[in-house]
Amino acid sequence: MRIVGMDIHRSFAQVAILEDGAIIRQLRVDLVHDPLIAFAKTLSRDDEVVIEVTGNSAAVERLLRPHVKRVADAFRVRIPQTLLVAPP
User: Fold this and answer.
1) What order of strands is seen across the sheet that includes strand 70-73?
2) What number of other Cβ atoms are within 10 A of residue 72's Cβ?
3) Count: domains in the chain
4) CATH code for the domain in which residue 73 is found
């Protein structure tokens, strides 16, 4: 299983894909229907996506949901403090 983190902006999403605790890919996806669907098709039914809740997030969630195991809102998921604070 991979975890896909998406930081949603007005016209694009910054994406980080984690596997076994390491970032294996980073990319930017335009938040236009066709590029977003093309990105969704690269994901696996075993992948879990965590998205930042913003104005565009509901539309992004709706388009990604059929392609992955789960889409979760970052603010509804408890994120461990160790991931939020940069090491000294």
Assistant:
1) 22-30, 12-19, 2-8, 48-51, 70-73
2) 13
3) 1
4) 3.30.420.40
